[in-house]
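User: Hi! Is it possible to get a structure for several chains at once, not just one? Here's what I have:
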Amino acid sequence: MFGRGLKTLSCVTVVLIVGAFALVFFYAPNDADQGFIQKIFYLHVPLAIVALCGFVAGGIYGILYLRSGDRMHDLRSYVAIHLSLILAVATLISGSIWARASWGHWWVWDEPTLVSFLIVFLLYACYQPLRFSIEDPQTQARYAAVFSIVAGAFVPLNFMAVRMAQSVAHPRVLTSTTAMPGSMFLTFMLSIVAMACLYVTLWKYELASKHASMQLRQLRRKLAGEDDGWTPRARRSAAPQL
Amino acid sequence: MRRAVVALVRKDLRLEARTRESVPAMVLFSLGTFVLFHFALDAQTVAGNLAAGVLWVTLLLAAVLGINRLFVAEREEGGFDGFLLAPVDRTAMFVAKASVLFAFLVLLEVVAVAAFAILLLERPPWHALPGLALLLALADLGIAVVGTLVGALAIQTRARDLIVPLLAIPLSVPLVIAGARGSAPLLAAAGAGALEGRWLLILGLYDLVFGLLAYAIFDFLLEE
Amino acid sequence: MTATVELADVGRAYGERVALRDVTLTLEQGRTLAVFGANGAGKTTLLRILATLLRAHHGSVRVLGRELPREGWAVRGRIGFLGHQALLYRDLTARENLRFHARLHGVAPQRIDELLDAIGLRLRADEPVHTYSRGMVQRLAVCRTVLHAPELLLLDEPLAGLDPGAAEVVQALIGPGRGTRVVISHDVEHGLAEADEVLGLRGGRVALHAPAAQVSVADVRGLFA
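Assistant: Yes, the chains can be modeled jointly so their relative placement is included. Here is the combined structure:
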């Protein structure tokens, strides 16, 4: 069900990533102030943007699940959030490396994106423990959906609030995209597209994999003679069950 | 639904008046935290940013105590079943609990802000009070809404007391940002400054977004 | 005339554990269904599904002519549920508890006094529930159950913890003839005596389902074997 077009998508993703890397290393100019290390910007910001979209998508699938009861939406929501959390950690790490290289500190409070991500990470880190601590699969899916919706609505609000908290005295230095020469802009756009494709590819892979193991489990149950499709029989886990 | 909300609120307020569990604990916790801050910061008085920070963090942590207790009676004495059996709109539980939490927070703040002024401020913040009250009221609304949601989320989980602070603290960050930044000029050492409108805007937006959201999805937390 | 309760192939699980499976039954208006079974056989789950407190994971449920869970809102005010928990706030008095439930159900306050009199708790009505004995709590719980004059009574061991005098008083409120009843009981003789139909559950499945006249005490005891 989820595997359709996966091969094409993977090829496209690989091409885009290679292309983006090539542009970053050979085409985009070195930044006057920060030198070569500034190029981590092409990794850090796309990670951030895609992770944010992923969190919001998780919330949207949560809404769809609550409205329809279709467990596939719950699965999509779970995978979206789970992948975005990984991207969020990568954002924090890449941001930290960048800060260290540019400013000599492993962490800077002046950078609103980084700070917002820290808060968002702290929030979403509770998602899987929350799921795991609820035993009944249906209840687990429902509560997880509510969480994903609340957290998804929180993300933009949080960004706005943190951005406002950085007053004019601390201008954003790491991610100012106002004055970007054309070559930088092109590289930046390509990096975002490549990261987005990577995310979607990984998302589809994980969905296909989980769906396949669910079907396998169902078949096993049918063979063992327990015919009804509705009896849940899995061990306790944070991931959605069918 | 109004009838159900009123019945629930009266019941909770009566329970609190009789058992006196939540509000005194929240107040005592705040006082203790102020003392801790005095020693931790080694300061006779605080002003401006520092004062705002100490006040808001303390109030938020005290609120978490209140959120933990919010659904205890329902959980332990089967109160949810009693409510779920009644022919009333289930969102009434959300409105009632959020209102009760709001009331507790207001009571807490009346005492805690006074204690804060006595213990840690250099001079009585009379001029700061109207602005402070407005900020606190808007922030309380936000904490009430989000706290009720988080409290309800935590009911079904096994690590209830842990989930509440872990979720409530990140979710409250925008409130603390707006509240503390808004209060800082009010509590300045040189005398109360101006209250910037944009912090009220953030608080208002937060309250609106989460209020509507919680109202729409709270039902799903009560079904089985 | 539609039956008061209609279940078809109802199933419900808690996580990995299947509590009910393939339960089918019909109960006509005004009749009493006695439910027997060992602990963990699924009786409480069945009762809670009928009370709209739980959803069935499988099958269809119709109560008072309405389909659950979709139309649960339409039947809630017409069902009286007495479970294992009293659903009372221990720090409030009997009167305050009943007043709370009366407000939720839109019942006139006079009824509270009538019920307190009928159940014999009038004198202690203004003391907190945590000072009550087990029997008194149970009696108050029965008051709560019938406060809104329900058409369908769902009772989980209603006479547990009651001395004979109290049991008599309680039977006047929830006994046979007070509407359609589904009663879970561990007292086989008594349960059988007042039942019109019998349902026996074993391991979540229906092991016995027949009119009470055709069921003997030994048949029921066989369920617990």
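The two ends of chain A are 15 Å apart (CA to CA). Helices of chain A lie at 6-27, 41-68, 71-103, 112-124, 127-132, 137-165, 182-224.

User: Great, thank you!
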